[in-house]
TrEMBL record, chains A, B, C, D:
It catalyses: 5-O-(1-carboxyvinyl)-3-phosphoshikimate = chorismate + phosphate. Its cofactor is FMNH2. Belongs to the chorismate synthase family. FMN binds at H125, F126, S127, G289, K304, P305, T306, P307, S308, R331. Reduced FMN (FMNH(2)). GO terms for biological process: amino acid biosynthetic process; aromatic amino acid family biosynthetic process; chorismate biosynthetic process. It comes from Megasphaera stantonii. Pathway: Metabolic intermediate biosynthesis; chorismate biosynthesis; chorismate from D-erythrose 4-phosphate and phosphoenolpyruvate: step 7/7. This is Chorismate synthase. The gene is aroC. Homotetramer. The lineage of its organism: Bacteria, Bacillati, Bacillota, Negativicutes, Veillonellales. It comes from the Bacteria. Its EC number is 4.2.3.5.
């Protein structure tokens, strides 16, 4: 079940960039959940390209149509399918993708995987466009989570060499998360916005692209979600995150910085805050032994620079079986980090919904 | 199926540190595979504690007994179960674990998860001891992979502030992997061994512990393994790695360093090396779009300092529901990074075996 | 993953009878399979109602639209989604379904299952209409199987008290299967057609309905598919068949008749037919120990009379919480057995495709 | 995951008849469940052979040892593994099984499935002995279910040509279930015991065997468990039952008899019994649309005559690739139906526990 994620909240994604439609089937949603579709549309719009000079000028019509699983204003408990029609594409633009392998893309690995039968137009099933149904699913999940007091927020921690401040590991207010969602370049230190924009525009000017880091926090989770083997909360979140195109690293809490710490500095001391158990620090990112401890879950993902660049690149032609050069035509995102922020939030929301539903079994 | 990993090669782990036994069921192994049990024993011995001053002086009898699935020198294709008996433990040593929550451990999160019914002695099911059956499974998997030309190697990239050289991303010789397996502190730059040992002994002297980073490489994989959604090779490996206690981060290829790169620097140019397709660099860690591209798979995991330290720590007593202090008695590993190396290799071997068997379906 | 069937060939079904659309996502199909869509349409038409006096006069537009996973005439290997739009329904006809529970239907059990939020119009997700995407999936699977020499055929063994002859357990010709597909009432003994039609029309005349038995055979399967625990071929087929509405029993080979046999009569003697291994009888339905033995797989399913009848019935009103009577308005199938034949064939095709892909793992 | 059953309560079985041990891993059990191990032993003893002249005189030591998952008198919530050691076997008795294929057994299909590497001694992984860990798991599950008011009972409905009375479909008292468990030949009409014994002894006298039917009832289940697609209660139970060796058919409620009924006779009328919803008949076996309706779940399984008979049989020798004859030496069960009764009860208990845990997700 390659294209299905989740044991209890099972998300199936289908579609190709230039096919008839892309979409998702959301199975295992609790019945009786009201969904604010406008809020879902807002999330999808955050991901959409073409909003400003920093992203591609292609216009994508990401209007979704719910096919099933929603009745009289509530989820039915049966599968909710949503379809997003693809617009008309001039597929000839992509003809060379059949045999000229774009470096950094899945053209070659995908061609081998599917014996050359996969739809190569616009990256096909590998296209970043497939994150639209993911955002749809996450936006639905986040409304269900919100009703249980869970909030998910994210910001750009880094673009190129510019680094934002970090979330306070002991927690941030939901209002901050909401305000971040309004920003094109959501950062904590607003002085970094223009610097980041500078990095992006400089890369664009060089016909190049630039990567970054996204930091994500989930607040309001109860302690006791997840499992030691093999379905830790980190396992669930990382499994999901590495389905987001361009993500190449993930760390929880202090992550790689823990490598140079001492145990006395890395351990998060517990204390009673009234009847509530809390930790004084949160270097473990709210997770001990794969299970939430009630503190905010905190993680960061590394996003590589988008591989689609206009510069001349060396590569191979699988038709002639010879080396060749490639100039990728058309307009491309010089940076996808800002568009990946709602994707990371959505992906985290779905993964956490599944962890919750899979853990909280009671007879 | 919390305690089962894998769609095709399904690994189930059971046991608690101070229970009768720990063990594993390996389901979905190809039939007809010869297994060198001495080689498996060697791998398990690499993980075992008590080999020198750098690890705990507890002696663990990690002798496994194969119960099933092996007949006349070959795997049968039916489940292979192995059991590792636990020795006699003076369980009273661990009595305070029931109500005094060790910081950085799963004592609290596990207590909530299992309603206080989980076996708390020695960490129970959360104990690092549970990695012994994981090493068993991985050692079996690695022999099966080796027969197909796949080699898995790892070294300590970092302990505390000491950093080793890195694997050459375009590939290392299997002989290097083998020689690394002989080392207590497997590093590429041998001058770092004494420095790392110094870090560890210094932490020990301070009644403290220290973390590190492990770098792992898998060579010889064919292109075309894995999937875009949701079972990317990165998803499979990270899902597995975050089941290894103390792992808090993972990155593939250049990982987090990609965040500050340009696309022109991050893209790996393809070229024909005779009939073979290779890349000139390997900043994507051998994986494009979640699928192997034929280059070595390269990743690094962050290992936090072991939370068991002898220093006085602040924490809570869930019996009295009051804050308290804790001194963890007994001998503890000042560093588990070196013992985690064979665990990471084993975990990678099993995950890759499953990816391979799950991808290579032919009718 | 309630609405997903299959480990390797994973079928997800969505939709409600009166929602926007119903459909299916077919994940794990081999890449590079040509699909004859006209042949799929033919299968779907076999299931459709309104073909004659024996089935409901409602007209259903079962035109499917493939959304993804098919490119340049071949399956891509990525998920193939098909959507079947629902026509306009006068939903008021179904208003009483919200609170008057139809006996024999899932109105009550479904209401409890989904807390009353499920779409009750026309049975919603429980509607027999959901078998249309199942037929779609099976028709695709059967073309893939046919290319490997596998044929699936079925006939009506019984309707009411009229019983057809049985398939010869040692195998039937594929041509017979094809000719059966042309029939409205597919039977081996053509003299039974009018008798069966008589049973159906008599039930209709009585404002009642009638059940039956369908016999299905799968020829051309290699020996060695399936597993002893827990994924036997019988397990896979029965799991699937009990998803087909109205199926209440299944038996393999001689099935329940084996209960009164002696072992000497029930055992199928092996013999060499040249180099081929065959059995002299096939009382085990081509399956030993859960695994195919190379002989035809043979099974029968019991189909209960359709619960929608026009007669006055006793039941409950969940609004008033009182007993009441019910007259189901509209036109209903007096017998769905003939319409279930292509559904059983399709369901068997998908289940067998999954068994094959799940078994035939090779490295 | 061939050898694992269940989404939430995941049962993994391992072992071969003549290997070191057989056993089971029970994952996903609720934490905090007291288990009466003597009651589990009683269930396992019911399955054991050698209790009287009607079953094989082989003595089997079915003493289980719990390895994990149980602490201080309660389930821990982590995997519970139990191992049953195999006794010493004179494996030479079974030498011919390597190349002389026993009719009706899995010798041939298993040999093909596993490329000849499977353990053939005593049937290996296909042995009926593998039902001992299944009974273990079911006995644990039944105690958990009992605490929620669920009772599981079974009796022999038929052996050869002798047929017992049926359970009352509207429900039986738990006391009846308990008294049936005390019987060697559990039947409702005690006059049938000697007739059934006569059938068995006659078969034995003829060096032959005889089959039968087992009827099983589950009372006390709440309405609303299960799913329409694809995890109906019938799907779950049948999937499990066809893992029990020798089972070749299953029917729910009136099953195959529904084929000759009218809808007016097959529909179960709902009524209010005070506040409780009940049905006046139970021809659907307590399941509508794949979901429990609150009435007893009722099903019957067909058990074929044990294929091990002492008579001379025709078969093949895979070494010489010639036809041959076979006389199976040793003592064999002339009837396994009575020994299968506790297996069916146990298998039903586990399957229902999983359905319950998989359905009852709440956030």
């Amino acid at each position: 079940m390659n294209n299905t994620f989740g044991r209890s909240a099972a998300l199936t994604i289908f579609g190709e960039s230039h096919g008839v439609s892309i979409g998702a089937v959301l199975d295992g949603l609790p019945a009786g959940e009201a969904i604010d579709w406008d809020a879902v549309r807002t999330e999808i719009a955050r991901r959409a390209p073409g909003r400003n000079a920093m992203s591609t000028a292609r216009s994508e019509a990401d209007a979704f149509e719910v096919q099933s699983g929603f009745f009289n204003g509530y989820t039915t408990g049966t599968p909710l399918c949503a379809v997003i029609r693809n617009g008309d594409h001039r597929s000839k633009d992509y003809d060379q993708l059949r045999h000229i392998m774009r470096p950094g893309h899945a053209d070659y690995s995908g061609k081998i995987r599917y014996g050359g039968y996969n739809d190569f137009r616009g990256g096909g099933h590998f296209s970043g466009r497939l994150t639209a149904p993911l955002v749809f699913a996450g936006a639905v999940a986040s409304q269900i989570l919100k009703r249980r007091g869970v909030a998910v927020g994210a910001h750009i921690l880094q673009i190129g060499s510019v680094r934002d401040a970090s979330f306070h590991p002991l927690g941030e207010d939901e209002a901050l998360f909401e305000s971040l969602k309004q920003e094109t370049l959501p950062v904590l230190d607003k002085t970094k916005q223009s610097e980041m924009e500078g990095e992006i525009m400089a890369a664009k000017g060089d016909l190049d692209s630039v990567g970054g880091v996204i930091e994500c926090m989930i607040t309001g989770l109860p302690a006791g979600l997840g499992n030691p083997f093999f379905d830790s909360v980190e396992s669930a979140l990382s499994h999901m995150m590495f389905s987001v195109p361009a993500v190449k690293g993930i760390e929880f809490g202090d992550g790689f910085a823990l490598a140079s710490m001492r145990g006395s500095g890395a351990n998060d001391a517990f204390y009673y805050d009234g009847a509530a158990v809390r930790t004084k620090t949160n270097r473990n990112g709210g997770i001990n032994g794969g299970i939430t401890n009630g503190m905010p879950v905190l993680f960061r993902v590394a996003v590589k620079p988008t591989p689609s660049i206009s510069r001349l690149q060396e590569t191979i032609d699988t038709d002639t079986q010879e080396n060749c050069t490639l100039e990728i035509k058309g307009r491309h995102d010089p940076c996808i980090v800002q568009r990946a922020v709602p994707v990371v939030e959505a992906a985290a929301s779905w993964a956490i919904l599944d962890v919750w539903l899979s853990t909280e079994k009671r007879m």
